[in-house]
């Protein structure tokens, strides 16, 4: 039975942690909005502004990380394909299998890089808001 790579486990762990952190953060913030009503306090306004700013930052970092990782992965895959094409001994099914495996690893690497900033911010918010009282 094949074992999962470290990247796969990392992505699975991040996704599981996100699935726990995001509902906690959303519940806290929606409750805060409901309690604030039409006249939010200064503390509420600060949290609401932070909510928007941190999403912009996390998603910008995510896109940048994925673009960088994709560029590196494309270079690595192109080099691997050139090596395969120029080395007659490597022609055939084993080479194609190896390239497919490298492509899958590259895709997982891009996903992992993109998930990291969003995961980091969501988990940090869940911890911070768990210590914060609504009023």
Describe this structure in words.
This protein has helices at residues 6-36, 42-86, 93-130. It has one domain (6-130). The mean pLDDT is 87. It contains 3 helices and no strands. The longest helix is centred in the middle third of the chain and has 45 residues, at 42-86. By secondary structure, the protein is mostly helical.
Structure at a glance:
With 135 residues, the chain is mainly alpha-helical. It is 84% helix and 0% strand.
Summary tags:
135 residues, mainly alpha, 3 helices
Spell out the blueprint of helices and strands.
Elements: H1 6-36, H2 42-86, H3 93-130
Helix pairs in contact: 1-3, 2-3
Radius of gyration: 21 Å
Give the number of DSSP strands.
0
Distance between the termini: 53 Å
**Structural class label:** mainly alpha
The helix content, as a percent range, equals: over 70%
As for the number of domains, it is: 1
* Helix and strand sequence: HHH
| Form type | elongated
**Total of DSSP H or I helical runs spanning 4+ residues:** 3
Summed over residues and divided by their number, the pLDDT gives a mean of 87
Largest sheet: none
Low-confidence stretches: none
